[in-house]
Amino acid sequence: MSEKLKVGFLLLGGCAGCEMAVVDLSEKLVDALAHLEVVFWAPTVADVKYHDLEAMDDGYIDVAFIDGMIRLDEHIHMAKVMRKKAKTLIAFGVCAALGGTAGMGSLHTKEELFSKAFKNTTTTDNPDNVYPSPHCLVDGKYDLTLPAYEDKVRTLNQIVDVDYYIGGCPPHHSHVEVAIGALVTKQLPPKGSWITNGKAVCDVCKRNPTRNGNGGRIMVDKVLRMVDGIPDDNVCLLQQGYLCFGPITQGDCGGSCLNVNIPCRGCGGPIPGNEDYGAQALTSIASILGSEDATASLMEKYPNLAKFFYRYALPSGTLPRKM
Amino acid sequence: MSFSPNIVGFACQWCTYAGADLAGNLRCKYPPTVKLIKVPCSGRVKPEYVLQALAQGADGVLVGGCHFGDCHYKDGNYKTKNRMDLLSKLIADMGFDPRRLRLEWISGAEGQKFAKVITEFTEELIALGPNPLKKEEELINE
Ligand code: SF4
Ligand code: SF4
Ligand code: SF4
Ligand code: FES
Questions:
Q1: Structure pTM?
Q2: Using a CB-CB distance cutoff of 8 angstroms, which residues of chain A are in contact with residue B89?
Q3: DSSP assigned state of A178
Q4: B23-49 CB burial, b ≥16 within 10 A, e <16
Q5: Whose CA is closest to B101, among B26, B1, B5, B9?
Q6: Which of A86, A166, A194, A249: disulfide with A61, CB 3.0–4.6 Å?
Q7: What ipTM does the predicted assembly reach?
Q8: Ligand 2 pocket mutation pick from A233, A245, A257, A264 by most atoms within 8 angstroms of CB
């Protein structure tokens, strides 16, 4: 048997949901481990420390998965270390690839975010307004440090070269399985590509109007949000006025959201040929608005369009943060 | 030195671009602040182009198309209208004054209107000051 592929996992500014998607492979993960040797998995799963990664020879890891976005100086440092240690580097999940939901943090100032997180939530009791700070001297002798907060969220490829991208928040475990299969058998697309089935969410959606003989141009007079009603679960959401990003999103999830009657918000990443997800989402949605009333109702229902169109992709956009 | 705004103009070849030509032939006076880019139809202007112009430091972006009913591709300008309405809200959410994006319908016969729009837009942008991104860059360079 050929040698096992050495893999590593590194969580940066994310929730570890992407790593749960690996664990969700369950017995298939056990099978895959016949071909894989996990040599690093931090800070979540394995009992290893960052300096263990730093001590490895350059190029020691065959395939590294990084999940989460970049917000701290520590993230920048570790991304660079992992890049050196890994022959192939994968931006795993939409946070690493496009910034993810946490990327919307770049629409706020640090003060707004810190006061929300450490002061103004109802469950917070912080009368002295203590905020985390990179340095703290305790008892006059213990110089403690915390990672420093960068001025905006970045995607992984804004820091290091990325070989492959995998979308999803988190990637669907069936897609993780396909991706790991492609890595083990070395059947990979050209470097810099997304690992994807190449289909849009609409393509895998059971509601697709063309499949149901109900195609034609979609025009709506009124925009609805999920709180406004319960959509018919056999009919395309766009046709019902619920705004769905399926047409412009990679469908490696198998249309998960549509299967539970909620619209796609784009976690799968952009279908190829699109440089700016949010701008494309705007174009796509604008094309179905049949009247000025429809446009007005959209803007009334979605008070912040940057958060709506760039739900998962703001840091990768042409304008990656608020001025 | 006084601030002279830098406007990127996307002009439909069938109307606004011809209107700009006519403004020249009529020797209309307007400030030399706009760089026109000819597009086949205002409906060809992707939001990405406008965002790109702002990201690269344009102080204002003008999108010029045919009047409703006159678009050579029937409904290109209706699409433009939807898009630009959403886009001006989007750039406001990104921290830009939405007045930095201007949508105008200017026909090939409206040379005077073209000159008037550029004059007004220039004045408005002078009042707004430079693209906030440029200020940030200057701060970084200092
Ligand atoms: S992509 Fe989603 S699941 Fe993965 S780390 Fe980011 S927020 Fe978590
Ligand atoms: S727009 Fe949404 S609901 Fe309609 S076919 Fe596409 S993914 Fe399905
Ligand atoms: S339907 Fe869209 S938002 Fe939902 S999981 Fe799939 S790609 Fe993500
Ligand atoms: S042809 Fe002029 S706006 Fe469409």
A1: 0.95
A2: 299, 305
A3: H
A4: beeeebebeebbebeebebbbbbbbbb
A5: B9
A6: A86
A7: 0.94
A8: A264
